Amino acid sequence: MMLGTARRFGVSHALRATAPRSISARLATQLPKWQAPSTLSSLAATRSLHSSFPRLSAATAEATVEETEPSKSAMITEFSDLAAENLIHNKIIKNIIQPDRMNLKTMTEVQSLTLNEIVKGDDILAQAKTGTGKTLAFLVPTLQNILNDPSVDVSKVGRRSARTGPSEIRALIISPTRELAEQIAVEAKKVAFGTGLIVQTAVGGTQKRAGLAKIQQEGCHLLIGTPGRLKDILSDPWTGVSAPKLNTLILDEADRLLDQGFAPDVEEIQSLLPDPTKLDRQTLMFSATVPREVMQMVRQTLKPDFKHVNTVREDEVPTHHRVPQKLVYTRGLENSLPALLELAQNWQARRDNGEDLRPFKAIAYFNSTAETKISADAFNNMARNSQFRQSSMGNMRMLEINSRLTQALRTRSADNFRKAREGILFSSDVTARGMDFPDVTHVVQIGVPRDRETYIHRLGRTARAGKEGEGWLFMHRAEQDVYRKRLGRLPLTLDTALETADADLSQTFSNDTSVGKIVNQVTEGLAQCDGATKVKSYMGQLGTTTGNFDSKREAIQALNQMFTVGYNMQTPPELSPRLMQQLGLNRIDGVSMGDGTRQRRDGGFSRGGSRGGFSRGGDRGDRGGFSRGSDRSGFSRGGERGERSGFSRGGERGERSGFSRGGDRGGFSRGGDRGSFTRGGDRGDRGDRPSRPRRAFDESFGNDSFRF
DNA sequence: AAAAAAT
Predict the structure, then answer these.
(1) Are A39 and A63 spatial neighbours (Cβ–Cβ below 8 Å)?
(2) Chain B positions under 7 Å from a protein CB?
């Protein structure tokens, strides 16, 4: 059926011959609000329910053609037809469709809708949902265009002295992350296999000299890289790598590359390329999201008559309809990891019960690198436990990835997760965009993400290529306002099934209950993490929580509670007056403020010689790390006042926070024993929590103080 | 102090 349709429409030369008319004119003058007709998206959605990759059907093709191509151009939907029309090189087609190679048959919407335009040489902004083949959409026609260039010599295929050099770059692809650049390159090499086209990468974190040597030796037609390294090698005349013949510039994840952080680099790279008024240059932009704010940048960067190919209706969300998105309120920040473990265990238990579910393979996203680390550490600690190993969780890989790891470790984690059958990847936003890990069943976002686009792209790591997947967002109640503002219109539904999400973790739990088992495992895993990691995690979350929470006061209380109850630490790190001011915390209760005499040392925090580590009260001989009762107001200023209160003076919220001693809930034993704090006094088993090994920070930090 | 990205 599809094939017949494709043939009916598949007239490539007609496509090439027809000039784009009204649509480009329209786009040039007004905000490009062109979009695929409604039938398209609804139909795609329906089809995807049947777990097929949303392809172009006959009906949609027709509708789309009319809408997008007033010139009645045709639409091709089968890769094999591209060969018949002699539009795309036979070798490329073979690489795509052969079962022992990429094994693809039918093109996706973006691929169909952009191919002819790209071959024609038009500038394009293409928007399509995550996991619908955007990479291939720009690779195939771009590689073809290079082959079409008579000045490109690929005649010496397979021989050592191919007549290409480091200045033969015809197309450049910029990616916002190193792993994505590498992934695109892998795909590009598959497509280009046997054509003689040379694909190279240039990303940071790798040996520059080795990379350069490779390009110098083998030459390069298509270069793929990240902004910093591309800038570096293209601006340095000594490298010999240059692009005087460049015809095509591709911005993958274009909205990201055009935003604040990247735009200057991208502009600088453009300035290193041949003057577009002298050598015609095609620019292609691809992304699942293009927020309004960047449209101006898009328009500035593309030619005035660029095409906006949008397969996502403007009133539609660029997520997949088939992906259930669940929202979970957590009682405190410390509940996230137990809830994550519970989610994984529940899933595995259902599998054990014979339900037809794929193995649990999840990405857990955090808003700070330090939090990814402590979470990965904690889960790795748990996974070492024999009870855990023998459970249905036993075969899970626990992996970590973020930009603070060495590139070697990053690459290893990504590779391992790709290969993993089941496991959890604890990730920062390095992997949020474009990464294609096969068979991810769950995306769990912990904390409201920094913006809507981030949410959408993270979610897009699951349910790719027609597969199923679930999205989860764990969020503190006090993030509601920012949630509504950023994600309010997305289709999340409240889920209250995870028991540990709402458990009061200041209690003691018995291993006889399922909740207790989970909580105690996490507690123990965290207890084995070192103190510095905990402090960094606290500090790392300061920025996002104070920004995300309904009030700064709530943010601090939640963080302090996470630190004491979740991490089993005594007193939260002191903050310098300067930092407090920057965070707007000056008049917030519950903050430990240092006296500002810190000396900077590695990583932005300083160790003040004599000041107690984390200013624990006990060893200083004063009243213990916590203020109790409502007598104390204000906060401590380091030690010079001799008092340590730190936080939570009574107050209506006090009792929730796990410290703030009323005595009724157990809370906190201060006193000289520094450390042991016993929660759950009301249950009568104080101090007997199953797993409370001596905290690592006692050893590693001694009496030193950390102020920030 | 909060992703990422050159050394």
Answers:
(1) yes
(2) 1-7
Q: Which residue is nearest to nucleotide B6 (CA to C1')?
A: A228
Across the beta sheet with A470-476, the strand order is A397-401, A423-427, A361-365, A442-446, A470-476, A325-330, A492-494
Cβ contact A411 with chain B strand, < 7 A: no
Distance A271 CA to B2 C1' (A): 31
Nearest to A226 by CA among A207, A204, A247, A243: A204
- Complete edge-to-edge strand list for the sheet that includes strand A282-287: A199-202, A222-225, A171-174, A248-252, A282-287, A124-127, A307-310
Give residue numbers, 216 to 245 of A, with CB < 7 Å from strand B.
Answer: 225-232, 235
Q: Output the pLDDT for position A74.
A: 60
Contact criterion met (CB below 8 Å) for A69 and A120? no
Considering only residues 174-193 of chain A, list those whose CB is below 7 Å from strand B: 176-179
Task: Please state whether strand B lies within 7 Å of residue A259 at its CB atom.
Answer: yes
User: Residue A93's closest CA among A104, A83, A85?
Assistant: A83
Q: C1' nearest to CA of A432: which nucleotide?
A: B3
Tokens linked to A257: 């590359």
pTM, two decimals, is: 0.79
Q: How far apart are CA A519 and CA A525, in angstroms?
A: 10
- Pick out the nucleotide with least CA–C1' distance to A544: B2
Residue type, A97: I
Q: Is the CB of A403 under 7 A from strand B?
A: yes
A26-84 pLDDT, tens digit each: 222 222 222 222 222 222 322 222 223 333 332 232 223 223 333 334 678 999 999 88
Query: Which residue has its C-alpha nearest to nucleotide B1's C1'?
Result: A543
Task: Using the CA of A401, give the nucleotide whose C1' is nearest.
Answer: B3
Between CA A682 and CA A38 the distance in angstroms is: 60
CA distance A289 to A411: 26
pLDDT digits (tens, 9 = 90+) for A641-655: 222 333 332 222 322
* CB-count burial class (<10 Å; 0-12, 13-18, 19+) for A683: middle
Lookup: nucleotide whose C1' is closest to A229 CA: B6
Distance between the alpha carbon (CA) of A458 and the C1' atom of B2, Å: 18
Cβ neighbourhood burial of A548 (10 Å; 0-12, 13-18, 19+): buried
* The residue to which tokens 């989860």 are assigned: A472
Nearest nucleotide to the CA of A205, by C1', is B6
Burial class (CB in 10 A: 0-12, 13-18, 19+), A122: buried
Say which DSSP state A662 is in: -
* Residue A516 Cβ under 7 A from any strand B atom: no
Q: Please list, residue by residue across A278-311, b when 16 or more beta carbons sit within 10 angstroms of its beta carbon and e when fewer do.
A: eeebbbbbbbbbbeeebbebbbebbbeebbbbbb
Residue nearest to nucleotide B3 (CA to C1'): A429
The answer for residues whose C-beta is within 8 angstroms of residue A7's C-beta and 6 or more apart is: A81
